[in-house]
User: Which sequence fits this backbone?
DNA sequence: GCAATGATACAG
DNA sequence: TGTATCATTGCT
């Protein structure tokens, strides 16, 4: 673990991220994703659905055909965001997992809004202005990988950034939280992936 | 069922 | 340099 990563994650969380994506993905369910919006407000979101992309042998994984300018961050160390544009319109958010040169990632497919973080600086403004410039309505519709990135204002600027508060998008992992019940399903939109399309690498809270 | 919309990967 | 494809969404 290099110095930057050391200061960004606890050993326990970094050890989690260093595992294969199919191990990490279900453990992210029920945990929290936090987003600092341009107006400074911080939203808290519960992770409700994810998919695992498990390295170069996985035909559905972007890293399947080797390193390219788009997927290079997946070949780096765990704990970074992999963000890319799909269908010319939608940004997909992934967390890179597993060690360097083993390109795994977890795709975020669904979130639920939990709350606004109340800081001493903005508590007056939040209580008086209905949570600033971020649309409350937009934050109710987070069921879909393209919808959640739109609502959280996630785009290519986050690609390759560290999943820590310095990037404005980070995870809050409580390893003592009891494991929630979830179902395993096939991944979506990868019909081209032969036998890999049927593998149960999508995980959704029940 | 299918159009939108543009970056990407790969063929030639 | 051309073009088929795409880890999606929303409208008909």
Assistant:
């Amino acid at each position: 673990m290099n110095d930057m990563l050391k200061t960004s994650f606890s050993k326990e969380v970094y050890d989690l991220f260093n595992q294969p994506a199919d191990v990490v993905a279900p453990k992210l369910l029920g945990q929290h994703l936090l987003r600092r919006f341009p107006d400074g407000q911080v939203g808290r979101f519960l992770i409700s659905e994810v998919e695992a992309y498990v390295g170069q042998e996985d035909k559905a994984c972007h890293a399947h055909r080797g390193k390219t300018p788009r997927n290079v961050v997946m070949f780096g160390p765990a704990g970074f965001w992999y963000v890319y544009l799909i269908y010319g319109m939608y940004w997909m958010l992934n967390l890179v997992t597993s060690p360097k040169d083993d390109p795994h990632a977890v795709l975020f497919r669904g979130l639920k809004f939990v709350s606004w973080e109340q800081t001493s600086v903005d508590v007056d403004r939040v209580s008086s202005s209905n949570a600033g410039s971020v649309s409350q309505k937009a934050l109710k519709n987070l069921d879909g990988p393209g919808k959640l990135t739109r609502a959280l204002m996630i785009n290519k600027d986050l690609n390759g950034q560290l999943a820590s508060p310095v990037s404005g998008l980070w995870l809050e992992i409580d390893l003592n939280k009891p494991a929630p019940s979830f179902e395993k399903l096939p991944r979506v939109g990868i019909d081209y992936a032969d036998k890999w399309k049927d593998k149960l690498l999508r995980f959704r809270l029940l």
User: Anything to note?
Assistant: The helical segments of chain A are 3-8, 11-17, 21-28, 123-129, 145-151. The two ends of chain A are 35 Å apart (CA to CA). The first strand of chain A starts at residue 32 and ends at 36. Residues 51, 53, 60-62, 84, 86-90, 92, 94, 105, 107, 109, 144-147, 187-190, 192-193 of chain A lie near DNA strand C (CB under 10 Å from a C1').
